[in-house]
Structures are given as structure tokens and as C-alpha cells.
Design goal:
By secondary structure, the chain is α/β, with parallel strands linked by helices. The protein has a domain of about 80 residues. It has 13 helices and 8 strands. The chain has a 5-stranded mixed sheet, sandwiched between helices. It starts with a helix and ends with a helix.
């Protein structure tokens, strides 16, 4: 991360947590500074090193470094979890829909998948529950990521013996949609209107209206084109997992913690800092520019760029939460799990991608 972002984290923790403030001990000798403590915690996250390895560089003992990590993950989650990651607002959803519409996937909100984190120090009595096909104890992370690798949803802690469907049944990824808290999306594909956005998935996920998978065995040119585009766009979440593991070696190596709660705190802290780096480096959320406005500013004869853009085919409205309307909750749940809507939307996307491809070939 860049230095200003690191200092922002240090200042945030110093202002909210007394542990990160430099104080004198009983002999009136100043203790470790906030920079030392935060650097020790981030080094352990970024390099996956043990607590006693930061002693030579930062002059902190093993027990102090371990305490720094514990206080750091608690402080980051307490102060920054409401914003990184946050639930998408109306502005976020509109931006996501614009970006995915330019990729010829109107109504798409991101990609969803699961990742396993090996748990080396899993208690012997729990190994039967946490061992999957690999015969190694793992803990599962379910995440939704967008094209810029921002992780919008993270659900961590499911034992590794479960598969993606079991994780989906436990997670709260559709909780706000079912309760009508989330902004409502209305979009049009191939002349047909749909009322809920969708995520791209692999083949294991169920045939719900909010999931679109690739064609298992494409036989026609249309199905082949759709499968290629869907698999290409679905790599967003795979790339997010790869970048997350590259930035934080601690979640790429087998976990040494004894507690699932500590593993959850470490994983959420890594995701929060990852999103902060994405926002800081790419400046996606603060200075996003509408492609329509950008197109108007481009010279008409500029080679390799387009000066026009398809008309927007979606609308986003606020959710209408009604805790007393149990019938509406059941209806929303049924709409999400509607297989017929899934097949209709998938066929419309196939036709939409084929029409866009033919139009590009003609031009």
C-alpha cells in the first residue's frame, strides 16, 4: 500500500485505541510507537511470518508482536468494517450496472465463488468436520467481487467439508434482497424486463434467477460465444482471490491460529485493507466518470475509441423494507429461486451477446 494509506490506518487506530498510543511505562520510558505496532501487525499479515520474526527489524518481542496483531485486527474491524467492505448503495449499483452493461452483461452485479484456507492447527476433535476432499482441514470464504476486484460480500467460517451450495445456504448474500432492504434493480435484456440483478457463477451453483452460469456443453456458435464471455467475466472473483492471497501471504499459507474467531478476524482485516488499497490505487469510487460524459469529450476521429454508447437499460430504486409483511418475504425468496426466470434470462443473454457480436462484425 502507499504510505499515505498506511498512515491513515495508523492515525485511525491511534485515535480510537489506547493500545496504539505511545505511553511511558513504570520507569517513565516510552514504549513502542504506533508505527512500530502497526508495522509489526501488517508485516505478519503481508508476509505470513511468525511473531518472533519481527524482533530484529522492529525491536518487539514475540508476545508483544502477537498482541499487536490481535489489537490491530480488532481495531481495523471496529473502525473500518462499516465502509470496507460495505453493502452497495444505489450509486454503487448504478456504477456496477453501467460497467457491466459495457461488457455486454446488462444487470450483472459481480461474480460469486468460494475459496478454501488451509487450517494447520485445527483441533483434532474438529478435523472430521473441517476436512474436505483434499483430506486437509480448511475454512471456506464466500465472496462477491466486481471487475475492479472490490469485494462486496464476504462470508467466512464454514467448515471445509461443505461445498459451495452448503455455504450459500448459510450465508446472508441475499438477506437484504429478500427483506427488500437492498436497492431494487430493473433492467432490460433482449426486449425482456427483469427485476433482480444477477451474479456470474460456476456450474455447482443452483439454477436461480440471481445466478447465471456457463453452458455446460455448448453445441452452437451462440452457446460457445456466451460460454467464453461468461467464463471470462466470471474470472473477476478468481482474480480477487489471487490478488488477496498475493497481498497477504498469511491467508495463502496454512493458518497457525487455534481459534476460528481469530481466523475470521484476520480474513476480514485482509479484505478491508484490500478494498482500501483498491480504492486508493484505482480511485474508482471517488472520481468515477460517467462513460456518457467521457464519450462526449472524445474527438470523433480518435482511433481505437468509441464516441457513442448504448442507451441505459436499467433503473435503480430504493428498497421498501416492511418487517410485518411476511408474505412479501416469502414471495421474494421464491423469486430468487425461480428456475424459469433463470433459463429465460440466460437465453436472453445468449441472444444479446450474439446480436452485439454480429453488430461488431458488421462495423
Amino acid at each position: 500500500m502507499r504510505r499515505p494509506l498506511f498512515l491513515r490506518i495508523v492515525d485511525t487506530l491511534s485515535a480510537s485505541n489506547r493500545y496504539f498510543q505511545q505511553r511511558p511505562d513504570a520507569t517513565m520510558r516510552l514504549g513502542a510507537s504506533p508505527l512500530q505496532k502497526c508495522t509489526a501487525a501488517i508485516r505478519m499479515l503481508a508476509y505470513g511470518c511468525s511473531a518472533d520474526q519481527v524482533d530484529e527489524y522492529l525491536k518487539l518481542g514475540e508476545s508483544t508482536a502477537r498482541e499487536c496483531l490481535s489489537q490491530f485486527v480488532d481495531g481495523v474491524i471496529a473502525q473500518l468494517a462499516t465502509e470496507y467492505p460495505r453493502k452497495p448503495t444505489m450509486e454503487d449499483i448504478q456504477r456496477l450496472l453501467r460497467e457491466e452493461e459495457d461488457r455486454n452483461f446488462p444487470g450483472m452485479l459481480g461474480s460469486i465463488d468460494c475459496m478454501h484456507w488451509v487450517w494447520k492447527n485445527c483441533p483434532a476433535g474438529w478435523k472430521g468436520m473441517y476436512q474436505g476432499r483434499s483430506k486437509t482441514a480448511t475454512v471456506i470464504l464466500e465472496a462477491v467481487a466486481s471487475r475492479d476486484l472490490w469485494i462486496w460480500h464476504a462470508f467466512f467460517g464454514t467448515p471445509g467439508s461443505c461445498n459451495d451450495i452448503n455455504v450459500l445456504q448459510r450465508s446472508l448474500v441475499f438477506d437484504d434482497i429478500i427483506n427488500n432492504r437492498a436497492p431494487q434493480v430493473l433492467f432490460t435484456v433482449n426486449g425482456n424486463t427483469y427485476t433482480k440483478g444477477y451474479y456470474l457463477t460456476d456450474g455447482i451453483y443452483p439454477k436461480w434467477s440471481t445466478f447465471i452460469d456457463a453452458v455446460t456443453a455448448p453445441q452452437t456458435a451462440k452457446d460457445t460465444l456466451f460460454t467464453e464471455r461468461q467464463e471470462s467475466a466470471r474470472k473477476d472473483v478468481e482474480r480477487a482471490f489471487g490478488v488477496l492471497q498475493a497481498r497477504f501471504t498469511i491467508i495463502r499459507k496454512p493458518a497457525l491460529a487455534w481459534s476460528v474467531d481469530l481466523l475470521w478476524k484476520i480474513m476480514m482485516t485482509c479484505i478491508i485493507i484490500h478494498n482500501m488499497i483498491v480504492e486508493d490505487e484505482r480511485d474508482t469510487y471517488l472520481n468515477y466518470k460517467d462513460p456518457l460524459e467521457f464519450a462526449d469529450e472524445q474527438p470523433e476521429n480518435m482511433s481505437g475509441s468509441s464516441s457513442t454508447r448504448n442507451a441505459t437499460t436499467f433503473t435503480v430504486t430504493p428498497g421498501q423494507y416492511d418487517p410485518d409483511n411476511f408474505g412479501r418475504l416469502i414471495a421474494s425468496r421464491g423469486e430468487i429461486r425461480d428456475r424459469d426466470v433463470h433459463m429465460a434470462l440466460k437465453n436472453d443473454l445468449i441472444e444479446h451477446l450474439w446480436a452485439q457480436s454480429m453488430r461488431s462484425d458488421e462495423n
